[in-house]
Design goal:
Length: 193
């Protein structure tokens, strides 16, 4: 008898499981990602059972709330979200843009590993924390390997929360830019004879 852990919502699915599921080349690999079972165990399962489990796993990914968490504990490491986007370095900016561009093609995610790389920039080890403020390990592509496995263990709800954070931030930026542009155009229009 095989015991299978089936997650109930996005809080109980990790970024690593999500990436493995959508990077899978076939149903066997998707089942391995969704259940943590070996290839041999999955191959011995009934097809109807695997279909049911895969459907449930996909539904679980869409259940739950997006949660933007600034600091999270993963096993023995504390990870923190970039506290100030106005203070990001050029290396962070270039790598985030590179990974974001690699992820998408024609509006769809095509490279799920780039998603993990992007989140390794957004969430990094906290090296100092005091009174609600924290300092992150300085970003370097060479250091990512030392904490990538921890980022992959972040809950999917956290990834969704970070994406919602970006959508809200982008919306605020667009509204602010549009208001500024409208003010400039109105000023210029009023100056004309």
């Amino acid at each position: 008898m095989i015991s299978i852990r089936i997650p109930k919502d996005s809080d109980s699915i990790t970024i690593g499981e999500y990436v493995a599921f959508y990077s899978a080349q076939n149903e066997v690999e998707r089942m391995m990602a969704a259940t943590g079972l070996s290839r041999q165990q999955v191959n011995g399962m009934k097809a109807a059972t695997t279909t049911e489990i895969l459907d449930y796993f996909e539904q679980a990914m869409s259940r739950g709330e997006a949660k933007h968490k600034r600091i999270l504990k993963v096993r023995d490491m504390t990870l923190g979200f970039i506290p100030d986007f106005n203070a990001i370095t050029l290396a962070e900016h270039v790598d985030m843009e590179t990974y974001a561009n690699a992820m998408y093609h024609e509006g769809k995610i095509v490279d799920y590993n780039a998603l993990v790389s992007l989140f390794c920039i957004l969430y990094r080890p906290v090296i100092h924390e005091h009174s609600g403020r924290y300092e992150l390990q300085t970003y370097s592509a060479d250091k990512v390997a030392s904490y990538k496995e921890y980022v992959m263990e972040l809950p999917l709800s956290c990834m969704n929360g970070a994406l919602v954070f970006f959508l809200i931030t982008l919306r605020e930026y667009v509204v602010s830019t549009a208001e500024s542009l409208a003010t400039t155009v109105m000023s210029e229009t009023q100056k004309e004879p």
